[in-house]
Amino acid sequence: PKKNHDLEKNLYEELDKLIKEEFAYLHVGQWGQQRFGEDRKNIGILIKSFFKAFANIKNAPALVLKTNGANFSILDKHEIKKKIQQVKDMFSGVNLPNVYLIHGDFTIEEMSTLYNHPKIKSMVSLTHGEGFGRPLLEATMTGLPIIATSWSGHTDFLPEEKTIMIPGELKQVPKSQVWKDILIEESQWFEASENHTHNALKYSYENINQLQTKASNLMKENRDKFTLNKMTEKLDEIMESHIKDIPQQVG
Question: How far is CA 46 from CA 35, 50, 74, 136, in A?
Fold first, then answer.
């Protein structure tokens, strides 16, 4: 966690101007090229659920997407904006809350500023699956409350009692995601319940102080358990258990 005066000044001010609302959800992840609902981070469904949760609501929160497709080009940014618009086009006759796009390569200091900005109140991810989920862990290190799917690698550091975990079910991956020797056709991934998602968003918006207390406790826990020093200790334990059996040279 950082105080405002410790943050990257130019980006802090730019974010302050960009985000009009005092409450914004943050998502960090790459938006794949697949059809709606078929990208691994599930960003299209996240936007749709966010719109459903806060359409026609006065003083609605915002959703900040730190995302890109294949690269950080102007054309890529244009494609991401087009995808956001396609989700907006699913709704008619309603006032939709704002979605802000942050597109580009950030330094560690800039990412820290994004996580710590006072208008960013919670991190949300409807990911279909993670090997680990580094942005989610990074967010916990700054004390952000987390909303995420209740399956896959990130559950190692997101306990249900200190986060909001979205239920759902395992489904076969779409053919567009089959990746030779990586994701086989018989693979499954997690589909978050859309109904539970927009209920969780509403609940978190109305009970953010309660969730912030849990997030602060999780921050302390993860800052102790998931560090380079802890990794070093764990690796040392593993190596020592094998090294003791290696024959040693004698005089």
Answer: 14, 6, 23, 15
